[in-house]
Specification:
The structure holds 2 protein chains of 2 kinds.
Chain A: E1 13-22, E2 25-26, H1 28-36, E3 43-44, E4 57-58, H2 71-90, E5 101-104, H3 112-120, H4 127-137, H5 141-147, H6 151-160, E6 167-170, H7 175-188, E7 194-201, H8 206-214, E8 244-252, H9 253-258, E9 265-272, H10 287-300, E10 309-311, H11 318-332, E11 341-342, H12 345-348, H13 355-369, E12 371-372, E13 395-396, E14 401-408, E15 412-419
Parallel strand pairs in A: 5-6, 5-7, 10-11, 10-14
Antiparallel strand pairs in A: 1-2, 1-8, 1-9, 3-4, 7-8, 9-15, 12-13, 14-15
Helix pairs in contact in A: 2-6, 7-13, 10-11
Chain B: E1 6-15, E2 18-19, H1 21-29, E3 47-48, H2 62-66, H3 70-85, H4 91-95, E4 98-103, H5 110-120, H6 126-137, H7 142-146, H8 150-159, E5 166-169, H9 171-187, E6 193-200, H10 205-212, E7 238-239, E8 241-249, H11 250-255, E9 262-270, H12 278-289, E10 296-300, H13 306-317, E11 322-326, H14 328-331, H15 338-352, E12 373-379, E13 385-391
Parallel strand pairs in B: 3-7, 4-5, 4-6, 10-11, 10-12
Antiparallel strand pairs in B: 1-2, 1-8, 1-9, 6-8, 9-13, 12-13
Helix pairs in contact in B: 3-8, 5-6, 12-13
Classes of the chains: A alpha/beta, B alpha/beta.
Amino acid sequence: MARHTDHLGRPIVAVTGIGIVTSLGVGKTDNWAALTSGKSGIRPISRFPVEHLNTRIAGLVDFLGSSNSGPGALTYELAATAARESLAQAGLDGSGFGGPLFLASPPVELDWSERFALYRSSSEEEGYRRLLAVARGQNHDTFFLNTQFGTIADRLADDFGATGLPVTLSTACASGATAIQLGVEAIRRGECTRALSIGADGSATAEALIRFSLLSALSTHNEEPSKASKPFSKDRDGFVLAEGAAALVLESLESALARGAEVIGVLSGCGEKADDFHRTRSKPDGSPAIAAVRAALADAGASTDRIDYVNAHGTSTPENDKMEHLSLSTVFGERMRKIPISSNKSMIGHTLSAAGAIEAAVSLMTMREGVIPPTINYDVPDPAIELDVVPNVKRSADVGMVLSNSFGFGGQNTCLVMAREPG
Amino acid sequence: MGAHDVVITGLGLVSCLGEGVDAHWRALTAADATPAIDTERYPPYTIHPLPAIDWSLQIPKRGDQRQMETWQRLGTYAAGLALDDAAMKDEAMCASMDMVIAAGGGERDEAVDAMILAASEARPDLGVLLNEKLTTELRPTLFLAQLSNLLAGNISIVHKVTGSSRTFMGEEGSGISAVQTAAARIASGQSDHVLVGGAFETEHPDMLLGYELGGYLHRDTWKPVWQRQGSVGGGLVSASGAGFLVLESRAHAEARGRKPYAVLDKVVAGRSSRKGDLAAEIGKLLESCLPGEHPALCLSAASGAHAATAAEKSALDARGSIAARGFATRTGHLKEAAFPFAVALAAIVVSRRTPYPAFDAASEAAYGGPVDAVLATSVGYHRAEGVALVTADA
């Protein structure tokens, strides 16, 4: 009989379903084919005008029904699309899911199209006084729901029959990993036998792009969009804003085996550590990221030599890639030069709230398929970053355990350790 | 009683009543109960404003203060109060401390928005207008000063809480889930000390707009929270304030010789269909925390929103042994912070062994029973319900 508990006597958490949507397409099949052929989903922006913008490229999901319906509608559709795929794979579609929902999604605000619509429906007063006067004059259910942070998870919980009060969370660019961590912890506590963890982000509006631009965070490599995201390269100049979603069905190994579900992989460990140095910059010694990696390994009960591959946060900003290299080199020592590490963001850009979930999904597929997706656009290596970034071309490899990193503004550091086989 | 009991050892409170445990106890037990309200700034709405705060008492660096809008500053301030109250401002203690924050969004730049809206009346190319104005008028640092997870980020920077940092979103429900998750982590041994709480700053028209698009704001003359049915508007009187808790395992608190305020015995949460029988669903949550006829005070975070508040009142009234204290009558509605604030007020009354008087004598029954088991509720104006049971430390 298989062992159902881990090194600390906790239920082992299996993954029994994966769903994914990125600018490369809908579903695991299309995304995996594109990711392993080194295809970029970064394109010129057509959703909104780009006049006056320094960055005019993004990895937008422009092919869904609600791609032009605002961040709330698109984030919901991304999440629901990924969730449906994951539940179908897990064999849990069609009935109530019967477990909690953890949703990583972007903070919401009224969209500018809505603000303009409200403003134009009156000529009395100005600014917010007018918006408030219009608001109290009539029913604005759709607009209202778009201002409520709980709306998307509420709809998803209804759609899929999640139990209890769903959790919507943000840990900035680590959100997707945190959603998975919350699911893992709930199963380990014995509160549930399965959990649905989703990271979704359809918030790439003009204002979002401008905000990141004003922080000098974005690549301005507009001429060749597919070349803009170049993690670990010497000429990297920022991340590329992107959209996407991934959903993972997490399940106690015991429950998965009992119902004959296919075990895709195992969530072995989660680690986190907050940084108190600065709102956007990491502590110069990298100690928080180092602590997060070590915490994930300790939680998994794994020594550093068990890690066969690192799915990098790898945003393509000068700061992140330098600090990620420093942190990993500290934890793994000399061996880090030989551990393959690649950044999915080189192809799909930075999907913000969704990134941690998408990258966990790709990590699990990497182990299953025995193929590591490359870091594309690696043409000018940064001599200060000595890493095997699986440059430009996929690689076959026997990968039994993966470390996936997620680091975000606000000192957020969350790392996941995943394994191909239980135990 | 066990090592993994979840005990409450620190409270950080800010509301229109003042700041800190003693100020709130005094205000809530005072005979004179004139509400601290402002009817001038956002007519026709009444709000409960922040008290005067010397931010530097908890956020010593001016540079840090400048990096935050008021909501983040308020939360960071109240978090500091809770850490002080728990005697937890210790480097090693904070470095291993977990954190779950219930957050909304921050304040937009009202002037920039107004400028764009005004210009929009003469422009057909709204997309280009947005790019033109936002690229030149937005303060670069405003993004971070209003970003949801940056309240937690600032607490890490200012108070050095770095064990972990998670931000939950979703109005009252985020506060409920934050407390529930923090307590569950301690009870299971996943954590031994957690900072949990939230803040809401209502003195910004954008924050009022979110409510009013759903028709939730009270527009009539001010009334106590249980007496707004039938008044003009939606019944909710919004407020600025914050509620933070330091939760610990009993073993962790005892090891450092801290006497807890109370035990956080149970937290339950629900997401009822608001088209169904909400009162019955609230009733089930109440029963699961305190079954039978046990007499108890209930610190209710009822917002005043008509349907939700009527359902909660009906659920509470159906249990004759429960005496409700709707503290929004005194503080206004605190949104994400409502549930942590309710739990904090429950912890205070349990530790002082004396019940709060009625906050609205016309609607709330007098209570002279025991205060060894006190309920705290939050029924969201639009969705999410939570109930906690707070008990006396043996």
